[in-house]
Design a protein that fits this description.
Elements: H1 2-18, E1 30-38, E2 42-53, E3 56-63, E4 66-69, E5 72-76, E6 79-84, E7 89-96, E8 99-105, E9 113-119
Antiparallel strand pairs: 1-2, 1-9, 2-3, 3-4, 5-6, 6-7, 7-8, 8-9
Length: 131
Amino acid sequence: MRTKLSLSYIAAFLALVALPAPAAAQSLNGLWDATVIVNNGIEIPFRMELSASGAEAKGSFFNGDEKVTSTTGKFEHGALTLSFDEYGTTLEATLKDGRLEGQYARGTRGAPFPSLLRAATARAARPPPCS
C-alpha cells in the first residue's frame, strides 16, 4: 500500500511538472520603432532602445547619431515612465500586446503628444551612405 501511495504522489508531481509554463511576461528589453504624433496629426518616427531590470528602467532615443538616455525610469505592472531631465520631458506608456501606448509630456511647453512604440522587427541592413 505504501508503494501505491508513493507512486500516486510521484505521478501527480510529474503531471504538474509536465504542464506548460504560463506565458512569460512581455519584455521591454530591445529596440522599438516609435512614433510621436505632433501638430495636425503629423507622425514623427524614431527608434528607441529600452531596458528594464526589476522596476528600474531606462530608455534611449536617437537624434541622428546622438543617443539620448533617460535620466530616471521605472517599469511596474506594465506601466513605463521615463524622464529626460535634459529636455524637461517625460514618456509615459502602457505595455499591452507587444505595444507601448501613451504620451510624451513636454512640461510647460504645451500639451503632451500621443506616442506609440512597437517592438522593432528585423530589417535588412542599410546600404552604406554615398560619399
